Amino acid sequence: MSFENRIYNFAPGPATLPEEVLLEASHDILNWQKIGAGVMEVSHRSKAFMACYEKALSDITELMQIPSNYKVLFLQGGAMGQNAAIPMNLMGLGKVSSQADFLVSGVWSEKSAKEATKYGNARVVANTKNEGFTYVPDVSTWDLSSDSAYIHLCTNETVGGVEIHQLPNVGSVPIVADISSHMLSREMDVSQYGVLFGGIQKNIGPAGLTILVVREDLIGHAMPITPTIWDWKTQVTSDSMINTPPTFAIYFAGKVFEWIKKQGGVKAIEVTNIQKAKLLYDILDQSALYEGKVAKNNRSRMNVTFFLRDESLYEKFLQESQELGLIGLKGHKSVGGIRASIYNAMPLAGVKKLEEFLKDFERRA
Questions:
Q1: Is 178 a catalytic residue?
Q2: pLDDT in the model for residue 4
Q3: Catalytic residue among 28, 178, 230, 232, which?
Q4: Nearest alpha carbon to residue 198 among 216, 217, 182, 185
Q5: What percentage of the chain's residues is helix, strand, coil (to nearest 5)?
Q6: What is the helix (H) or strand (E) element at residue 19, kind and residue range?
Q7: Considering only CA atoms, which of 3, 9, 38, 14 is closest in space to residue 204?
Q8: Lower CB count within 10 Å: N or C terminus of the chain?
Q9: Which of 28, 32, 101, 202 is catalytic?
């Protein structure tokens, strides 16, 4: 069985999802595990859902190779919510009270730094806004402080298409990383981080679930003003269920974890992602029409951004690509241009179809 008229969805999130998981979920929405009720109708305290929750927790721990001294939380509020929760839980841990460092390499890390100023001193160690958020400066140029509680990075900036492929050496200060748009797209050494977090609406499932991976020694230090729902210690002791969790999103994420395992795990997924990204970047490097502005060593594998040197062609480009079933290619409103988000569930066939269109469009331009 297959859906008819499925497009190739290059939107940045909510994004394309594995078709076989969508098919299974379409059945489970009506009758999950033959219990006569849909998965969205089952109590989060029920035996069936708790088994689903535990399986999802086990699978992501396996896929990310999360060490035993870390906790995984399934939360709500998106990465934006954690922009507030993280400083409230961590800022008091530095040698200087309520201070943290921030690398501002794009729109999302800029938002993170701005939010943190409500709870303490958000020190910007480097900021590439004046250069159009097109690269990550060498760590030797960062104004790091050993007195800070942590340093915040967004390791893949969805808007600009800037990715940190090699983690910089920032000393002993814990690294907090927003991995929303490349979670499970590549292998990562979790032990190098204090906190990893991200919304699932790009690589894993429907919007509504945020995954937080936090080292145990960083739990239990929340500011007195911290709302209960953002207190990590409270969430850990209640299995992320101090209120009703986003049950369908957890269920769906669990199915995607199983799908990733069937593909050969994160290692195999990463090989395919490298191949997909190379197809598009090779065109940009050889083109007289398309211009990629991101530094080559910081190009995102998930969000390929570029511009047309002839700006009068944008409307035609987007119209023709949409007519071919290539959807969601318009760049973010803050920067313009074109953005192709090629997350895990984007098949190689979809990227090849986009590759063919790019070549054909340039020939005719």
A1: yes
A2: 67
A3: 178
A4: 182
A5: 40, 15, 40
A6: helix 19-28
A7: 14
A8: N
A9: 202
Rounded to whole angstroms, the Cα distance separating 281 from 140 reads 28
What residues contact residue 138 under an 8 Å CB cut-off, 6+ apart?
none
Please enumerate in sequence order all residues whose Cβ is within 8 A of that of 324, keeping only pairs 6 or more positions apart, or say none: 353, 357
Evaluate whether 74 touches 121 at the Cβ level (below 8 Å): no
Q: Which of 32, 108, 232, 259 is catalytic?
A: 108
Amino acid, single-letter form, for residue 315: E
Determine whether 147 is an active site residue: no
Residue position matching structure tokens 């938002």: 111
pLDDT number for residue 1: 44
Alpha helix ranges (H) inside 118-264? 232-237, 247-262
Query: Are the C-beta atoms of residues 303 and 203 closer than 8 Å to each other?
Result: no
pLDDT along the chain (365 residues), means of 10: 78 96 96 94 95 98 98 97 98 92 98 98 98 97 97 98 97 97 98 98 97 98 96 97 97 98 98 98 98 98 98 98 98 96 98 98 96
Lookup: tokens for 207: 């919007």
**Which domains does the chain possess?**
26-262 (3.40.640.10), 265-364 (3.90.1150.10)
Q: Which residues pair with 303 in a beta bridge?
A: 341
199 beta partners: 210
Report d(CA 98, CA 167) in Å as an integer.
24
| Helix or strand (DSSP H, E) at 268 | helix 265-286
Say whether pTM exceeds 0.90: yes
Token pair of 260, please?
């990733």
Indicate if 142 belongs to the active site.
no
Strands 303-308 and 338-341: antiparallel
